[in-house]
Specification:
11 helices; six-stranded parallel sheet; Peripla_BP_I; six-stranded mixed sheet; signal; alpha/beta; Rossmann fold; 2 domains; SBP_2_dom
Length: 313
Amino acid sequence: MKKTLKALLLASTIIAAPATVMAGEIAVIVKTTNSNFWQNVNKGASAAIAGQSEHTMTFNGPAAESAIADELSMVENAINRGVIGIVLAPSDPDALAPAVKKANEAGIPVAIIDSALSDASKGTFQTFLSTDNCAAGKLAATMMIDKVGKEGKVAVMSYVAGVGSEVGRVGCFVEYLKANSKLEIVGPYYSQSQMATALNQTTDVLAANPDLKGIFGANEPTAVGMGRAIVQAGKVGEVVAIGFDGNEDLQAFVKDGTLVATMVQGSYQMGELGVKAILDIVGGKKAEPKIDTGVVAVTKDNIAAPEAKNVLY
């Protein structure tokens, strides 16, 4: 009798669960909310959820990209409160993997955006939306060689070592330079995605390497700090600087010549298409396993063109 009652209760729980789950919330969790890049993701996610009343969307993230434990807690909290789906930009490819696995086991679809999880996580999420970071790194490297030539020093100002986007973006930038030139790599230096840290690191690099020909800032806060250091050191036009991402500071640096270019991802598209993918999955459709959200090399020549305006923020 006890076994029968237990079975009935379990069955009623399983039957009732979908009705509860389908009523609810898509949790968008990013690496940090303290960045225009991630706020642009929020805009895209908000646009995707608008126009329908069945589901809601929440947007959250830690105070800094290095606060990996905080992001992990946010994912676990979302699972515990029974969200219908998660859009996640993982700050660490390994640390977030168990939480994504837990979501999968709970029947919660997950769309990973921006940075990949570790290979061991394959099959625990439904779709991955990102810039092809390796292609973006190679594009920046190609432009660097075109501007500085094949000999001399190029510094690399990176952000958080080991993050999926960093591995592709910075790794492929460095590999391309090594394979196609005799340029000496200075760095990489890791700012932990802190603008002030990047500013100080770049100031030191410029002082220690007066013969530096080029410098690459690999994400938004790093590139902003790099640009400010170049301005403060009076090196505008003397060092070929290429940034990454497209906030107002970086746009201004492109316009005034501090940066020859900035590589801009489709951050809005990550949020919009990520939420749409979850809505599709919840609605019984399949999402594409991989969605390329693109990158545009924004220069002074094309900054006013539609291709740049569509990705700048």
